[in-house]
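Bifunctional diguanylate cyclase/phosphodiesterase
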Amino acid sequence: MKANTAIALIIGAISLWLLHQKAKSKLNKKILILIVNLLSCLVILIGSLTLIQDIFQINLGIDQLVFQEVKAEGVPGVPGRMAPNSAVAFILLGAAIFFLNKRFYLLAQLLNIIGFLLGFLGLLGYLYGITEFYGIGANTAMALHTSLAFIFLFISNLFVYPNRGLMSAITNEFAGGIMARRLALAVISVPPFLGWLVLQGKRARLYDSEVGIALLGVLNVLVLGIIIWWNAKTLGMIDYQACHDSLTGLPNRKMFSDLLSASLINASRRQGKVAVMFLDLDRFNKINDILGHDIGDRLLKATAQRLTSCFREYNTIARWGGDEFTILLPYISNSEYAAKLAQKILDILKPPFIIDNHYLHITCSIGIAIYPQNGQDGDTLIKNADVALYNVKRNGRNNYTFYNPTINPEDSELLILENRLHHAWDRGEILLYYQPRVNITTGKITGIEALVRWQSPELGLVSPGKFIPIAEETGLIIPLGKWILQSACQEIKDWIDRGLSGIRVAVNLSARQFQESDLVLMVSQILTDTGLNSQFLELEITETIAMQNVKLTKEKLNQLSDMGIHISMDDFGTGYSSLNYLKQFPLHSLKIDRSFVSDITFDPCDLAIASAIVALGKGLNINVVAEGVETEAQLECLRQLGCMEIQGYFFSPPLPAKDTIELLKEHQSVCG
């Protein structure tokens, strides 16, 4: 490699590195821009002067400006001078960097591609043994390592701004971008490989050069055609799966939303109407619970097939999720057509479904919203159709109705919450957060409490204060509570297996759960299934629950305590427990309710109650935990009272599992 070639490559590499730094960082941008401009112009200058010398057969004295090279006998060319095609490549490289720095992305990337092809052609010349590919005569030959250096530099230059210009067509996550990335290697490697094969045939005198050229063209088209067809086929499957429900084959929520948006734009232009129908299968969950999910899934598929037969091809039915379907009628002149179609759906579901000798009768409820009077956008129309649907359910099910603005919005919200809550945990919408409990004296985390959160795709983050009472009222708290206990135990066991020292998790039991006759058996089974040692589980019941049936409470708590499970009484001080009964329960902790902690620093009554609970705990040898500690003043007050542990935002808010793990790791590394 000539000295000036090496120098120009180093300058080009430095300017390219600085360009990458400019793209990533906002520091000293003006200085970086100036330096990159100067260096790129220097690269262009070196290439241009070399090319001028070759074209006009003159010597400007730049070839041996830095290093002297002695002319070897019998070697043509000027000592120290780079090959003309190397000079052209340097001009392209410098110009590409300069224009990228000026944000002319398209022009810069085109220059990069030309430069890459120039270097790639030189590489093929060495692979094929064809000198014409990398230079005309020895004095113009581009060295192999020079070709490789140019290839790497031009490729690196292309990826300085991967989301701009031509590169955006390759780096995007649409089907075209995925296909371009898949085909990039084939486009670069297949034609040269086929060319090499054809060249070997020519050299073996199997055919003349014209036949070889024709053969190369046919092979390239055939092989690349097969590669493109295969990619198109697999991408088509990916696109189909992304837009369709895997069970029923119907369009999914994403595709329905896209079609609805397009239909509303079209309807707005032609001043037409659009109907959105929300359909829910009545009491479908009972079939799932009694006959199993396999029968339920097959029933959903059969239902989808029947429903599809009701529609014209320009109408759309989609599976919204679970046992819910949405229907789009993009071209209606009046609401009567939607009403007739709704009745047709009710009628078509009347004949029984026969699945594995089970005769299954199923009905549905349908809510309808019309654009533009019931909403101007897709989200509003779907929400209002949903409200109409639950008005049908409230009035007996197996019917349809149109959205009416006079429907009580509070009642509608409760109905929607109730329906969405069904099997929300199976859909991955119910999340567990954990809040640590800390020893006041040592600062050590002594346990964590599992707290439930509901992240609904339609309703957003729903407060536990809203959905827990609904779950209690409807009985959904039983399966939900079991899921919470199972999930908490499984996560703690996983954390212990991953090296975290054992820490106790507290799980609240609801009133409905505690009254279940198989509660103790259920807890025992979960511990067996998850493999969690019972010493790492703590169950919390409220004072009110404990006093509903003292005999039953004592019996169940003793059974749970005998298993090695810790028992806590939550919200202590807010109920009406008798101290005589309290001493009969196998309690390990009393939790002072947050209502007494919030004003403890200035309300003497709250201070007196908290002091009495701490004294009671000490007298009964029961640990006392203060909930809702948010300030240092509250902490100091509780410390003076002799409270043993605290829980609240002062130490940490409830955290998702990932953040809880990090907190525990950090805490264990500090506290040991």
